[in-house]
Amino acid sequence: MVNEEAKTNVSPQETQALGPYMRKILLIISCVVLSIGNCGGPLIMRLYFIHGGERIWLSSWLLTAGWPLILIVLIPTFYHRRATTGNSTTKMFNIKPRLILASAVIGILTGADNYLYSYGVAKLPVSTSSLVIASQLAFTAGFAYLLVKQKFSSYSINAIVLLTIGSGVLALHTNGDRPEGESQREYITGFVMTVGAAALYGLILPSIELIYLKAKQVVDFPLVMEIQMVICLFATLLSTVGMLINNDFKAIPREARNFDLGETKYYIIMVFSGIIWQFFFIGAGGVIFCASSLLSGIIISVLLPVTEVLAVIFYQEKFQAEKGVALVLSLWGFVSYFYGEIKHSRKAEKNRAAEMELPLNQVARGFISV
Fold this sequence. Notes:
Blueprint: H1 4-8, H2 12-17, H3 20-50, H4 56-64, H5 70-85, H6 97-123, H7 126-133, H8 136-148, H9 154-169, H10 184-213, H11 221-245, H12 248-257, H13 263-290, H14 293-302, H15 304-315, H16 321-369
């Protein structure tokens, strides 16, 4: 649950840097950007694999290779900051060495997570891998409780349990949607790797929030983007090492020539994959900054039905009973979470109204006594 304490704990400096109104606008924008990346990323990655792509390290590399796009966000904010302060010596990057080190560690973890996820997408249908990834919410909640002292309501706990059970239902029938030509061992390995990716990313999200809490400097949105850029840079470096060891760079031209959709579309898919996945990381970082890592995990899971339906429509993937049950449990969990959020917001508004009325009543009693 995104409680008032979780919001104020993001950083005391951040509260000064971003007002409540701007926070809401930025949160909405971050949610939209995250939605584009979360729904489009798995679909375009699966498109690469079903039409002849086979390079796992290349796919994981594309997840974060678009990190220079963050400069498109940072450059305008830099010139705006320099113009408003009137200081020509204003630095473009404000991230300190200790934050760079912490971000680099998370970046390496992200690179490992990208490989696990790419392997899973290569072996599983998008609709299945998306449902399995929904289990990351349970891991996010657990690590958020341990790392950033996230508090939960009965509704948020109910949502987490339902989403986790929904993902586990898929394990009851692991062969029903196995792609043609893929062995049972490959399918099970892909399933396990996807669960591993969900668990690792469940650690990464609260770790990013922890960086904001321990920053010891003003945490504004440009700094959040700088942290995200460092994370993606080191994740890309890890994937680059994997590509070099696996000779992926040499194999790209040959794979492009043999691609089912043609060489030109092969490279178009590569470019758009890098762009769309960067939307995911920018959006996730923005949501954590404006709210919490748990909310970021919730939104990622909330978009699961959209991704699943799109996969069935575009790729004619099977939709067995297990997926239907998992989908219903997931939707139930979403409703439970947001119903709890609405109740919490209404209660908070009533408390604020009561606090405002109390001084007025005291003044009125003072006049009466006089």
